[in-house]
Design goal:
Elements (H helix, E strand, L loop, with lengths): L1 E3 L7 H18 L9 E3 L5 H4 L4 E4 L3 E4 L3 H15 L3
Parallel strand pairs: 1-2
Antiparallel strand pairs: 3-4
Length: 86
């Protein structure tokens, strides 16, 4: 999961913190927790998206967007949960 430092003001910083917190809770609760790598960049070269709404890049190419940081958090947690079936 990658994000631009300039997009943090739109809620991405809190989203990343909440996703990390959820992942930590999964590490304690399950034998096979999901693994997600995080990378913060000065720029991810999608400035048009970056100024409009919260987004992250998944798998280095897929942009996930939402109208708010809270909605992006829900989207990411649902996606991680759906893709990681023990």
């Amino acid at each position: 999961m990658e994000w631009c430092v300039h997009n943090e003001k739109l809620g991405v910083r809190k989203t990343i913190e909440e996703v990390k917190h959820w992942l930590q809770s999964q590490e304690a609760a399950t034998a096979n927790p999901p693994v997600v790598e995080f990378e913060r960049y000065a720029c991810v070269e999608d400035c048009a998206q970056c100024v409009r709404q919260p987004f992250v890049l998944v798998n280095q190419r897929e942009s996930l967007t939402a109208p708010s940081g809270e909605e992006l958090t829900k989207l990411l947690l649902n996606r991680i949960h759906d893709r990681h079936k023990p």
